[in-house]
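As a warm-up, study this chain.
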Amino acid sequence: MTQQEAHHRLRRVRDELLAARYALGRAEAKWDVEAGKAAAGFRGEVTVDEIRRTAESLDRTFVMRLFAEFEGILLDYWEHGLGRSTEPKAADLINGIAASCPLPISDDHRDNVHHVRRYRNNLVHPRADRVDPLTVDECLTRLGKYLAYFPQNW
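Now compare it with the structure written out below.
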């Protein structure tokens, strides 16, 4: 993988979020125009409330998707860039790569990635420690800055 490809994979997740926002907005608008009739192409019954709830949870859903993609990139670098065969937990992976990267990853950038990881954990696990919420763009920026320390090719 290349650093450029890794960044591209993360940006694609953000682009999918934008597409989903657009699609949900269009579905809600079409719903209003059709006076409550389900738009053609929906299977089963979909309510406008379900469309609105989906739109409201979209950012949280895509933070989870973004971090999953990022974790896949980390595992790829761990295996192919560093020659490691283990599959550590995300926190250990972030720390291990930060310590092993040819360019030392700043503590601030490492800690910012841990904040994204803890926020993702908070979304997935109801008992996880509460953390300040982040937008998808804030997560993308934090993850991208961490990846900027990786070699161009691995």
